[in-house]
Specification:
Order of helices and strands of chain A: HHEHEEEHEHEEEHHEHEHEHEEE
CATH architecture of the largest domain in chain A: 2-Layer Sandwich
Number of strands of chain A: 14
Shape of chain A: globular
Organism (chains A, B): Leptolyngbya iicbica LK
Strand content of chain A: 15-25%
Strand order of the largest sheet of chain A: 9-11-8-12-10-13-14
Protein name (chains A, B): Hydrogenase expression/formation protein HypE
Largest sheet of chain A: 7 strands, mixed
InterPro entries (chains A, B): HypE, PurM-like_C_dom, PurM-like_C_sf, PurM-like_N, PurM-like_N_sf
Radius of gyration of chain A: 21 Å
Number of helices of chain A: 10
Domain PurM-like C-terminal (chains A, B): 180-330
Distance between the termini of chain A: 25 Å
Domain PurM-like N-terminal (chains A, B): 63-168
Structural class of chain A: alpha+beta
Oligomer: homodimer
Chain lengths: 352, 352
């Protein structure tokens, strides 16, 4: 995303209504697109001397912690816009959350777009605006990027990759391998909303629901958690594959079992109803603003209280405990145990 | 790219022959794919405790310099394999080079793949193997990643995003704005080979040529340059849009003119022949292993000598000088000046 000063000077000027191959050529049209769309909107985020790389003083990072966290995710969600968010807010929050659950303070993001020829420029504008808002809310900066255009049919509308760096606080090292029998398992609110939203938004069903995505940044909530409990064992955001997948990953990594109490699982009524109608399990539906936290048993109350004071954690609950064994099980309302296996096959493609 | 220890234990086992939607679901099939393909091949590159983020000690970085360089690029090249490289080597070298030309030592890369349902697993294996080899050659590590699958027709085969971090050496800050009239402009060898290779590889022409891509890492060459001349004004790799585009970016950023001498431009005979046949200009053809270097006039000989001692710079040349004005011009063999404008429109889509 190299912008010349003269390109900056002539902002905003973009006569095209749709993306053409020239917008990915490296030439004048690409400069104009980047200037009009990205530079004007990311104003104040991008460094002043634009080169192909962001340049970040290491002293600024070492003041905040002792390790760099580095992550990446591509976003291919279909449709691009859905109740509660869009591919832009998803791309920012998803990567912010990947950094946050490592115990890091998310700091800087990249933004790489693959655009399909023919994409309306107005769609792109809306997505970029959404990224800017999401970045501001999460307190991160988008500092560099890339734009590629593929001919019509070579991609579906718009894909975004965001990579992110953050700083891990000294003494805070959550990791699945630290989980021990006896630990408490918490979640910050109702599960399955993002997956249910995308399902409905696909318009494969003539359903009217109130469901909207839980897409939100979790770094503020993580601040509250690690302040209350620096010895937090593990955190992970429950995205693709849902809560059950994260718990299976935890169980396998730490060689433990996990037992959930079905009655303690927060699921919104509308999501529960949709799942019953379609034969889906909210435990396997994607979330985009939910994290699973594992803490030592004597810290559970403190952490729960800290989570509930944060807007993103008002509906937090203890949902189960770590046990000996190697399976994830759900104690049902009838008192029986149901094994929660890993997801086999796909529940829903292009969920994020 | 979260891998459980049990998934690690059962490497390699992958019965599927093609990519299915389940490989992007977050469930068991995705774990198996990641374990069999990425973990087994990136062995020794990935950190041992696999979480969704790489965790890098900041002390390791501050020992090497004072600023973090951070960059991203998506790769959508078509075809995936071409003489001299493939999308995998391109994705590693492209991002390594973006970091290197900032004066940084490239260190860590991410790898995010968007796969089309139906992609042969063998193709993916070959691309991953190529990334591993390229990373080893460049001395960087691929430390985290992401895999998304879109339904057939939602993307064309395989797209890769690599983001990268590197460490900028103390006292070395190349930037286009530093360029001044009088400075010398150098390039490390023949131009246009990558673009010409992709053109021929598209099989739109029944041509037999010896042309192959110049896809290569440039960080070793940059080491030689900044050691010889820490005050290097600017460096940039001449990818999309070719040499002419980089020079136009330089001219606009620094508000200077640049004058090239046509007879001093290195162009391979085969590339020149292809360009004459098709009416193309090698100055606008993409490169994937060529950088433009601008240095103070009294440093030109020293830098040229340093470049020529490195394998990636054997054919380096001084190709022109910075002048007053604001245009990039080429002094032709006939003694006339030809203006090299920015590329308008696209010369070739999906070149990288």
């Amino acid at each position: 995303m190299t912008i010349s000063s003269s390109a900056r000077a002539k902002l905003p000027r973009l006569r095209d209504k749709t993306i053409t191959l020239a917008h990915g050529s490296g030439g004048q049209a690409m400069q104009d697109l980047i200037a009009a769309l990205f530079v004007s909107q990311f104003e104040g985020q991008l460094p002043t001397a634009l080169e192909d790389q962001a340049r970040i003083p290491l002293a600024e990072l070492t003041a905040q912690g002792d390790r760099l966290a580095f992550t990446t995710d591509s976003y291919v969600v279909d449709p691009l816009f859905f109740p509660g968010g869009d591919i832009g807010s998803l791309a920012v929050n998803g990567t912010v959350n990947d950094l946050a659950v490592s115990g890091a303070v998310p700091r800087y993001l990249t933004c790489a777009m693959i655009l399909e020829e023919g994409l309306p420029i107005d769609v792109l504008k809306q997505v970029v605006a959404s990224m800017v808002t999401a970045a501001q809310q999460a307190g991160v900066k988008i500092v560099t990027g890339d734009t590629k255009v593929v001919p019509r049919g070579g991609a579906d509308k718009l894909f975004i990759n965001t990579a992110g760096v953050g700083v891990m606080r000294r003494g805070v090292t959550p990791a699945a391998v630290h989980i021990q029998p006896g630990d408490a398992v918490l979640v910050n609110g109702p599960i399955g909303n993002h997956g249910a939203t995308i399902l409905v938004a696909r318009e494969q069903f003539a359903l009217e629901t109130e469901i909207h995505s839980d897409c939100q940044p979790l770094n503020g909530l993580v601040d509250a958690i690690v302040t209350a409990c620096p010895a937090v064992r593990a955190m992970r955001d429950a995205t693709r594959g849902g809560l059950a997948t994260v718990l299976n990953e935890f169980a396998e990594s730490a060689q433990v079992g996990i037992r959930l109490i079905e009655d303690d699982l927060p699921v919104d009524e509308a999501v529960r109803g949709l799942c019953e109608l379609l034969g889906l399990d909210p435990l396997y539906l994607a979330n985009e603003g939910k994290l699973v936290v594992v803490v030592p048993p004597d810290q559970a109350d403190t952490v729960l209280a800290a989570m509930q004071t944060h807007p993103a954690g008002v509906h937090s609950r203890v949902i189960g405990h770590v046990i000996d064994g190697q399976r994830v099980a759900l104690k049902t309302g009838f008192g029986t145990d149901r094994i929660l296996d890993r997801l086999v096959g796909d529940q829903l493609p292009r969920i994020c």
